[in-house]
Write a structure and sequence with these properties.
CATH topology: TIM Barrel
Distance between the termini: 6 Å
Structural class: alpha/beta
CATH class: Alpha Beta
Strand content: 15-25%
Largest sheet: 8 strands, parallel, barrel
Helix content: 25-40%
Length: 218
């Protein structure tokens, strides 16, 4: 079970997450978020953990130039596109560097039609995605809302054999992640606000329980 702790903002927390056995950390470059980091802060975090853990850069409608600059500056090899980026944007980004790309879909009661169409376009453009992260659809928000994605819909309709690996996000926390994993059977899980003691402040005790509970049901 791939377990990502997103919204890390300082080297000490990154070090703690590494020691607790998470698979990846996420660095959020979306300035309006309470979990956002500057490129300078991200470089310090990357130096702290080096190659001990996957470091994923999270971007929301950034320009290609901005993403490329941060990727090169921090030495990132994985990016998570959390905005309204088009498949053409993804294809152009993939041409700039040998990156692993995680595509984000915000899913609600309307189902997976948008994701299905987008993935078809990605295939037509020859894009190979590392994974797809599914978060809850909340109007006006790009994530980090604490709302749950539709677990039963994902269990029934995500095409495990045809689509990229599924990373479940949205409303997860230590108390419900085991049930989420048993229900959806995702490849991975992602959490930000669900392991915080305050907005943007991670509780390592919450992280420990989240990692343990996620893996106990995988």
């Amino acid at each position: 079970m791939w377990v990502k702790i997103c919204g890390i903002t300082d080297p000490a927390t990154a070090r703690g997450v590494v020691e607790l056995g998470a698979s990846a950390i996420g660095l959020n470059f979306y300035a309006p978020s309470p979990r956002s980091v500057t490129a300078e802060a991200a470089r310090e975090i990357c130096r702290e953990v080096e190659s001990e853990i996957d470091v994923v850069g999270l971007f929301v409608n950034h320009s290609l130039e901005a993403v490329s600059e941060i990727v090169m500056s921090c030495g990132l090899t994985t990016v998570q596109l959390h905005g309204n980026e088009t498949p053409e944007y993804v294809a152009r980004l993939a041409e700039t560097a040998p990156l692993d790309i995680i595509r984000v879909y915000r899913v609600g009661a309307s189902g997976l039609d948008e994701a299905r169409s987008d993935l078809q376009q990605c295939r037509q453009l020859g894009i190979r995605l590392r994974a797809c992260l599914v978060d809850a659809r909340v109007e006006g928000a790009f994530g980090g809302t604490g709302a749950c994605a539709p677990w039963n819909l994902l269990r029934d309709e995500w095409l495990q054999d045809e689509w990229p690996p599924l990373v479940l996000a949205g409303g997860l926390h230590p108390e419900n992640v085991a049930e989420a994993v048993r229900t959806v059977r995702p490849w991975g899980v992602d959490v930000a606000s669900g392991v915080e003691s305050a907005p943007g402040i991670k509780s390592l005790e919450h992280v420990r329980r989240f990692v343990e509970n996620a893996r106990s049901s995988s």
